[in-house]
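for the writeup, i need someone to sanity check this before i put it in the appendix. the sequnce is what the collaborator sent (i think, or maybe the updated version? ugh). structure was predicted straight from it, no edits. if anything looks off just tell me and ill rerun, i have time this weekend
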Amino acid sequence: MLNIEENKVLAPYTSFNIGGLARYFIEVNDEHEAREAISWAKHKNLEILVIGQGSNMLLPDEDFSGLVIKNNIKGIKEESLDNNYIIIEAGSGEIWDDIVKYSVEKKYWGLENLSYIPGTIGAAPVQNIGAYGVELKDVFYSLRAINYDSLETEIFAKHECNFAYRSSIFKKQLKNKIFITSVSLQVSQEANPQLDYGSLHEVIKKDVYELEPSDISKAIVEIRKNKLPEPQEWGNSGSFFQNPEITKDHFEKLKAKYPDIKYYNLDNGLIKVPAGWLIETAGWKGKSLGKAGVWGKQALILINLGGASSKDIKKLAERIIEDVKEKFDIELTPEVNIY
């Protein structure tokens, strides 16, 4: 029996603490319940919106006329792939950082650089989350999902996911067409520390041969806690914008004007410029517009100052995009899923 609620307030289910009413709302705890809920919505010709931890979405102020499915599918299991690699499979409603902690406690390598990223593991491949030189695609093995049309379970291997920078087939071609039920990750028992990104190697003082996954994880958690606001205090969705990639010619022109510009050389020949640096240099760090603001410790974070609407956040984002475009001739792209 489906326990479907009506006219549910969505704001408490998002890290921005923003959102209108859901006409229909249900929490699902396993694959069977998820399939039933999808079938019910399809029968009534309703749009479906899936929420995990609600940490990478900006919902509208207006009411949602379809069915919101809150994903609570849990469970973690593992198996050996060979003498070196382990496959961790987790229910898509598991909190991402809990999976990282599980892996780190087992002294497995691969997930430690992705510590303290909010959200569920089910959302991780959609966004191809990444931090400190590692992306989800680097540890992804496969996932299980329910097809909305057929209600059948489909399995996606890594090569079928079209992973790109903060993107995947699930964010584009298959958006609103499948429900991810579990994700499998490939981790290693062999040491493979990734310390090249940003200031990470400066924070970790140990000799590389003495490192354990927990050393890297603790350092990253400390860095992130120092510069990121807790959603319970200031509603936010983490990094609001993607780091743009520009040509070398474009970069050289900017470097001539801004010698202190931050950047990373990419394998594809482009240059990645931190969006946070662009926003801060454009003068937005710590500034506000109405009830929406830019976090004072990290300009990449837009925050709900209290009672902000979706329109308030969007207006601030639009102003920042305009100023960065005018100042640097770079078009910022939101990383957050805006509805």
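The chain has three domains: 5-71, 76-226, 229-338. Residues 229-338 form a domain with the Uridine Diphospho-n-acetylenolpyruvylglucosamine Reductase; domain 1 fold (CATH 3.90.78.10).
thx in advance!!
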